[in-house]
């Protein structure tokens, strides 16, 4: 990112002796363009509240309910790690025991889903569905093992809406020899889950799921700073035989170099080059000077069929990749 000032510079050193200009006429004539860069962010959210005992039907893509740090969001996408469909919810509920899924692999480890259809009373789950994931086959892990930065989301399918109720608390989990099983004692209220109008159970069938990811913290970061009037920031471009130019566009040479190749260069990745004004090709102005003024000898812009352009970088961004 850079701010750019472009000037048309009169060729005073080449003016014929018979052309006299007062002190104001001998001063440089600049036509400048200042750029203000604004980063804008915008977002649109379609939000639908998911509350106990109230229907969730509408056309929003997402619904959101935060309660005691737990966020519940309806989404279309299936969970990426595991889906368990139970064709016989009433049978499992009648047994009164937690249901354990088969072993599945996610994020390089083995897991099981553990479902309490009548709620885990030891975790405040009375009157709720409780759902957890448990890490398995830990005997193959090193002594004193610990698995950190686990992003865990648990799901309840709603066939009526064709969406998944996604439950998370936003906190990265830590599994170890003491805590092998983590999840939510209050995944969804039984009064909501078993309400036929809500649509979670269809013909005694329901589905649950899990998404397990391990967040790897970034080791490097992009650091951006801004410098006003950097060194060697003025470039002069002299074009001879101006009246003989035939092409529609002309390009100057690169006038700022990469770091390490130019003396006094500011630390940055790429400075860039000056290009004529054309959509998608650069920055500048397409009406920098009137042709009448350019061809007016008394103005001093075009002398001996030569013209001088000058560009000045008034502000640049400096980007470096550094360790966090």
Can you describe this structure?
It comes from Brassica napus (Rape). Residues 79-212 form the MATH domain. InterPro entries: MATH/TRAF_dom, TRAF-like. This is MATH domain-containing protein. With 324 residues, the protein is mainly β. It folds into 2 domains: 2-39 and 220-323, no CATH class; 64-214, Apoptosis, Tumor Necrosis Factor Receptor Associated Protein 2, Chain A. It is built from 4 helices and 16 strands. The strands form 3 sheets. Strands 2, 3, 4, 9, 10, 11 and 13 form a 7-stranded antiparallel beta sheet that branches. Strands 5, 6, 7, 8 and 12 form a 5-stranded antiparallel beta sheet that branches. Strands 1, 14, 15 and 16 form a 4-stranded antiparallel beta sheet that branches. Strand 9 (146-158) and strand 10 (163-168) form a beta hairpin. The two termini are 23 Å apart.
Give the oligomeric state: single chain
Can you tell me the overall shape?
A: elongated
- Global mean pLDDT: 77
Question: What Rg, in angstroms, do the CA atoms define?
Answer: 34 Å
Under CATH at level 1, the class of the largest domain stands as Mainly Beta
Tell me the count of domains: 2
SSE string, helices as H and strands as E: EHEEEHEEEEEEEEHEEEHE
Task: Give the tags.
single chain; mainly beta; Apoptosis, Tumor Necrosis Factor Receptor Associated Protein 2, Chain A; 2 domains; 7-stranded antiparallel beta sheet; 4 helices; elongated
